[in-house]
Amino acid sequence: MTQSTHVGAQLKSWRERRRLTQLGLSSTAGVSTRHLSFIETGRSKPSKDMIIHLSECLEVPLRQRNTLLLAGGHAPAYSESALAETPMSAVSDAINRIVDAHDPYPAVVVDHQWDLIVGNRAVSILTEGAASFLLEPPVNVLRLSLHPEGMAERIVNLAQWRNHVIARLRREVEVTADAQLGALLEELLTYPSGGEWYEDESSLLVPLRIRAGDTELAMFSTTTVFGTPRDVTLAEIAIECFYPSDRETAEFFRAKSE
């Protein structure tokens, strides 16, 4: 979808991406199928409020909602503020507190492209030995994780972890229709698979098992996002925190922090 395509065609593309019929969307949005058809074919020009309403019903990300508004001849409705700007100061403080409080365990903050915004000191334990070019800003944490010159060489369950990362990224590409994420997915698919793997049915979460010297660390992660964002940057920030899966891993990180 491009900005040059009229807004109705873009809305239709989003509807089809969500696997909705015109009847299904019209029922959800409270809009007649006739009016929706006119919008999609360009016979009717939707208002700013209608574009926002249909975007909400289709769960279109904020960045792409702005694109739809521009295509419809309207100004963007959602700001895009840098974390260093005054309006985001409270958010920046909250992010720093969350990341710092997670010490001694690793935590990273990433943007919508999975580029690193900030990480705590424990992250260096996971990235130790990675090629320098992978650590140069902007650091893409998925590339760093799966690249053969990154963390991949030390990930014990590489095939399982790669499958988890690829599946997660593929879902994001489907949801966002982001071309850059699609290109990243294609790149990651070219990296070594790590061989076959078998699901550990006793595990409740997909673990990250990685060697740190002579120690095998076992961790799982949680993702935190901000609720009800009205800013593009805020909507696209995610905080990934890693937790030890066993006592040995917990003791390892605690010892490193002393």
TrEMBL record:
InterPro entries, alphabetized:
Cro/C1-type_HTH (IPR001387), Lambda_DNA-bd_dom_sf (IPR010982), MLTR_LBD (IPR041413)
Q: Which residues form the HTH cro/C1-type domain?
A: 11-65
Q: Which domain of life is it from?
A: Bacteria
| Name recorded for this polypeptide | Helix-turn-helix transcriptional regulator
What organism is this sequence from? Rhodococcus globerulus
